[in-house]
Amino acid sequence: MGQKIMRQVYNLVNDKLSTNQILFAGGFSAVPTTAVMAPMERIKCTLQVASAGGSGVVYKGPADAAMGIIRAGGITSLFKGTCATLLRDVPGSVAYFGAYEIIKQSLTNQSAGQGSISPLAIVTAGGLAGMANWAVAIPPDVLKSRLQTAPDGKYSGVRQVFVEMMRTEGAGALFRGMGPALLRAFPANAACFLGVELSLQFMNKLW
Fold first, then answer.
1. Can you tell me the distance from the alpha carbon of 161 to that of 45, in angstroms, rounded to the nearest whole number?
2. Distance separating alpha carbons of residues 72 and 117, to the nearest angstrom
3. Contact status, residue 124 vs residue 103, Cβ threshold 8 Å
4. Beta-carbon neighbour count of residue 177 at 10 Å?
């Protein structure tokens, strides 16, 4: 969607987007997905806390957790942490798609004049893009999770979560879990982009 909007704004058809346009398109793509992602993230975090025994409540699954959230705080409670999700996903998507395109273009330019990028280059670009995403997104993700799992009324918003965390735990708390996230990000996103690029190449040959 982000690329489509950029092409309409700049009246581009087949021309390649500039690096800045790709960065904007990547960031903007996170805006509509947040409407879907925020409730899912809220349910996921609630289930994780319940599974760890931190909330004293046991849920049978995502649907049961969603109903429990709605019963406790109304339908709007499902969207608790939406701004925090945007704070994570917009810069994260800028880093994600920007890093992928920049690294892919760099590797493609070195491919001895070939028009297509090699699978190894796709895997490299995709894996590093995933790591770039989480390197940027981990701090706001920590704030988002803390906000979404807190009892209703404890925090007025993500800003208060940040102030309280800095006061009681220090800046290091924002980067908890970064190591495992980066280790997971490389293979997961390498496989994702490899599948996307190979599928596009296959469909381009068919049509």
1. 16
2. 51
3. yes
4. 12
- How many angstroms separate the Cα of 61 from the Cα of each of 43, 44, 179? 9, 10, 28
Structure confidence by residue, pLDDT tens digits, 62-108: 999 999 999 988 999 999 999 999 999 999 999 999 999 899 988 88
Q: How much of the chain is in helix, strand and coil states, percent to nearest 5?
A: 80, 0, 20
Q: Which residues contact 23 (CB under 8 A, 6 or more apart)?
A: 94, 97, 98
114-147 per-position pLDDT tens digit: 456 788 999 999 999 999 999 999 999 999 999 9
User: The pTM is what?
Assistant: 0.82
Q: What H or E segment, with its residue span, contains residue 30?
A: helix 19-51
One-letter identity of residue 2: G
Q: At what angle do helices 82-109 and 158-168 cross, to 10 degrees?
A: 80
Q: Taking Cα atoms as reference points, which of 37, 8, 5 lies closest to residue 24?
A: 5
- Residue 51 predicted with pLDDT over 90: no
Phi, psi (degrees; rounded to nearest 5) at 154: -70, -40
> How far apart are alpha carbons 198 and 204 in whole angstroms?
10
